[in-house]
Every structure is written in C-alpha cells, then in structure tokens.
Amino acid sequence: MAFDPERQARDDNMTAWHQQAVAAGQKRTLSRTANGDLYSYARDELGFARAGSGAIVTSWWGMWVMAVVFTGIAVFSVVLVFAPTGQGQGPLWGALFLTVLSIGGVAYSASLAVRERSAKRVRSERGIPEPSPRQLN
Questions:
Q1: Which residues pair with 38 in a beta bridge?
Q2: Burial of 17 per CB tally in 10 Å (0-12, 13-18, 19+)
Q3: Per-residue pLDDT tens listing for the chain (137 residues)
Q4: Rounded Cα–Cα distance for residues 53 and 136 (Å)
Q5: 3-state secondary structure (DSSP) of residue 26
Q6: Could you tell me the superkingdom of the organism this chain comes from (predicted)?
Q7: CA atoms of 44 and 123, how far apart (whole Å)
Q8: Which segments within the chain are labelled E, that is strand?
Q9: Burial 40-58 (b: 16+ CB within 10 A, else e)
C-alpha cells in the first residue's frame, strides 16, 4: 500500500481529537473503519472486538448463528447424558461438561450479538462508519 499523505493527516487529526476526548474523561477506542481511516469510537458505538488472525465472526447475525450452533450442541449433550438410560444403564454424567460449555457458548455469543446489534443501530443513527472487520495493524 502506497503512502498517502492525506490519509496520514486525517489519521493524525483523529488521533489528536481522540487523545483530547480521552483526556476529558470519555471512554473511547481508536480503531480503523471499514474504509481504512482511523475513527474514535465510543463504547456504545463499537459493539464487540474484532481481533485475531483467523476466521472470525464480524456481524450480529453471525453471532446468532453461533448461538444456535451452541444450542444444538447443548441439546445433543443432554441427549448424550440420558441416552444410556434407555438400555438400563446409568446416565453418562461426564457429558454434562459439554452441556455446561455449550450453554456458556450460547450465553456469550447471544450477548455479543445483542451488543453488536445495538452498536450497529447507534452507528446508523449517528452516521458513524462501520469498524473494520480486522483490527491487526
């Protein structure tokens, strides 16, 4: 990517504004937008963190899909616990570990989906650009 002095000037201005806002007590995060510019997001505008080097979910509906998948795993694990009782054996209590993990996954991904949906609505109302799906600089 070629050096763009105009972008650098915009980034410097946004960085200075961000530092002033933080010094004034605002809780903000300096992050790249989808088009590559820097933007200072308030906490309610950012949603969930988009970081990492692998395939990641970057939308509220993607998080809901993850919640549904974790729900399916939870249901399967409950069936796995009680399936042996059909053959006169005791329940497979060890599978409850999978149940607990998957219910935690449901709660976590659903909360992220709600937070991101709210942040998307706030960004839309305020005319704020979408954050970049990748935050590795």
A1: 32
A2: middle
A3: 567 788 889 999 999 999 999 999 999 988 888 888 899 999 888 887 766 655 577 788 889 999 999 999 999 999 999 998 888 898 889 889 999 999 999 999 999 899 999 999 999 999 999 888 765 44
A4: 8
A5: coil
A6: Bacteria
A7: 9
A8: 28-32, 38-42
A9: bbbeebbbbebeeeeeebb
